[in-house]
Design goal:
mainly alpha; 89 residues
């Protein structure tokens, strides 16, 4: 049977080895790009890291905003910030 022939693909050991091989392959590709493009590659990696950090922060802000809205709405309030200006400002 086909499924029996490929049962080894489902074992954790095989999955770990496959992930390690894939990781090594992509590291080699990254190294080759670095050798070919040098400082442009470094700038590109920096931008990707910055975007990843911003994406994580955006996720945190939106996730917490949804939780705040749910908690405030439960009691009939809004979690949105309001500004009040005095006549002197």
């Amino acid at each position: 049977m086909i499924l029996e022939d490929h049962c080894h693909l489902l074992t954790p050991g095989f999955q770990v080895n496959a992930l390690r091989e894939t990781h090594s392959h992509h590291e080699a590709l990254r190294d080759a790009l670095y050798i070919k493009h040098g400082s442009d590659f470094e700038e590109f990696e920096r931008i990707i890291r910055d975007l990843d950090r911003l994406n994580a922060e955006l996720h945190m802000v939106t996730e917490h905003s949804v939780q705040l809205d749910a908690n405030f709405e439960k009691y009939g309030y809004s979690a949105h910030l309001r500004k009040y200006f005095s006549a002197q400002s």
